[in-house]
Design a protein that fits this description.
The complex is a heterodimer of chains A (about 170) and B (about 325). With about 170 residues, chain A is an all-alpha fold. Chain A has nine helices and no strands. Chain A folds into two domains: about 90 residues, Rna Polymerase Sigma Factor, Chain: A; about 70 residues, Orthogonal Bundle (Arc Repressor Mutant, subunit A). Chain B contains six helices and ten strands, in the order αααααββββββββββα. Classes of the chains: A mainly alpha (about 170), B alpha+beta (about 325). At the A-B interface, α1, α2, α5 and α8 of A face α1 and α2 of B.
Chain lengths: ~170, ~325
């Protein structure tokens, strides 16, 4: 019974694993280890797997759990958030020194500087591939609010990714 | 940075190499299973600890209750001491000897027989002298104890004691001498302490009667009856508006009415320069609430009251 459940879970999870990891990585960049978030989310998802009504909704189900964990932890302040981003960046090794990877690192840094809701909306839209309506459902807000977050978030990212801002 | 560049970066991010392997999930879940069992153990431990705490609190409260009961009993003893017949204490006796007065009979020794009362003659050195016996308001029998001490004690140890607390002694000099023994004061008018409006009593049968250490206050004004009776359990002196007055605390019993049973009541009795009496009713903390003006009963008034009392008894 338990094995069957694991199989069914893995069958749904494997296709979205990469997407989920990228989302978690970017979402908690500079704050905590993305593996912790993934781990916690997957445990909850596995335990509540029976409550999933449609297989199609798995991605939504999984991302929703991750978002709720983050929002709960933000309220409780139980996670050991790094107060100073510089300490994180200095301790996070830049894996590749290619230009592309540097740009990606800059993007992640810029994302980490965005307000939480804007960052989340952008990541759900760009990495999760969710529609505005779905994001509104996940974030428990209106579609217009999500639209605004996306547009303001992108504007902020463009500003933050100017060479002047990056070097400052 | 342009929009296109940003879109390109997001696309690259979507193709970024992943660091974890989905199959590791299985290990995570297994790990969590052990974690969960530990969690359950913790939960059970917490439950046991909280149960023990509750048990401890319950036991403590039981001990505390018995302790408070002891305290109450102590309090009861103290109160009983205080409730000794005022006239029969050493001070009181001296007072009567000094003033060449007859020692009054305490209501504790009161037989409850109306006939016995009738034999008592008032010897108090007051403006009027009268027989006091015929003022028995209702015939009492042996089965009906004059004052149900036990009941009063019960009421004083109940939760309602908070609403009916003992008057603090601050500012008052307490002694055991009741100055106006066997006094009958006819009440004329009443006014609130804070007001200048004065109301006359509805009839001429309003009175304050002090038979030994038993007090009856009865008056009627503006159609409302006011009746309190009980045994004085403490007495003393207090200065109100520059005048020294006698204060008496009594606890209402159910001898004539059960309406205010167990309620503590405080009276101040003063004498004006013209010989008239002034009775002050106190609230808690010796705050005067009502002032009643009266005079010592004349023989006619006393007779009239006795007649009325007898008439009521015959109804």
């Amino acid at each position: 019974m338990a094995e069957e459940k694991q199989k069914a879970f893995m069958k749904l999870y494997e296709p979205v694993h990469a997407q989920f990891e990228r989302f978690c990585k970017a979402r908690v960049y500079g704050q905590l280890d993305f593996k912790d978030l993934m781990h916690d989310s997957l445990i909850i998802a596995f335990n509540k797997f029976e409550s999933l009504k449609e297989e199609k909704a798995f991605l939504h189900f999984l991302f929703g759990i991750a978002i709720r964990i983050l929002s709960n932890n933000k309220k409780k302040k139980s996670l050991d958030y790094h107060e100073n981003l510089h300490s994180v960046f200095s301790s996070t090794p830049v894996v590749s020194d290619t230009e592309r990877n540097i740009e990606l690192e800059h993007l992640k840094i810029a994302l980490s500087r965005l307000p939480e809701e804007q960052k989340e909306a952008i990541l759900l839209f760009e990495i999760g591939g969710f529609s505005i309506k779905e994001i509104a459902g996940l974030q428990e807000s209106s579609e217009s609010a999500v639209k605004q977050r996306l547009s303001r978030g992108r504007q902020n990212l463009l500003t933050l990714l100017t060479p002047k801002s990056i070097h400052s | 940075m342009t929009e296109d560049k940003l879109n390109a970066l997001f696309q690259e991010m979507n193709q970024e190499v992943i660091e974890t392997v989905p199959n590791d999930l299985l290990n995570w879940i297994k790990k969590d299973a052990t974690k969960k069992s530990n969690h359950n153990k913790l939960k059970i431990g917490f439950l046991i600890v909280s149960l023990l705490t509750i048990l401890g609190i319950l036991m403590y409260s039981t001990t505390d209750k018995s302790k408070s009961k002891k305290e109450l009993n102590q309090h009861e003893t103290n109160l009983k001491k205080q409730e000794n017949p005022i006239g029969t204490t050493t001070n009181g006796a001296n007072f009567y000897q000094k003033n060449n007065l007859k020692q009054p009979v305490s209501s504790l020794e009161f037989s409850g027989d109306v006939k016995t009362e009738q034999q008592l003659i008032m010897n108090q050195d007051s403006l009027t002298e009268f027989k006091i016996g015929q003022l028995a308001f209702r015939k009492l029998t042996r089965e009906h104890p004059a004052i149900l001490y036990d009941e009063i004690m019960k009421s004083s140890s109940s939760a309602f004691t908070l609403l009916n607390p003992f008057q603090p002694k601050n500012g008052a000099i307490m002694d055991s001498t009741l100055r106006f023994l066997n006094a009958l004061v006819m009440l004329d008018s009443i006014k609130s302490y804070r007001s200048v409006r004065q109301f006359f009593m509805d009839d001429r049968t309003s009175y304050l009667y002090m038979y030994d250490d038993y007090i009856v206050l009865s008056y009627r004004y503006r159609g409302a009856n006011f009746f309190r009776s009980g045994k004085a359990y403490e007495t003393g002196e207090l200065i109100v508006d520059g005048k020294q007055i006698q204060i008496v605390g009594f606890q209402c019993d159910n001898r004539y009415t059960t309406a205010h049973f167990g309620q503590r009541f405080y009276l101040g009795i003063g004498t004006n320069d013209d010989g008239t009496r002034e009775i002050i009713i106190f609230n808690y903390l010796w705050a005067p609430s009502t002032i009643i003006k009266g005079h010592n009963a004349t023989v006619q008034e006393k007779d009239q009251l006795t007649k009325l009392s007898n008439a009521q008894k015959n109804l």
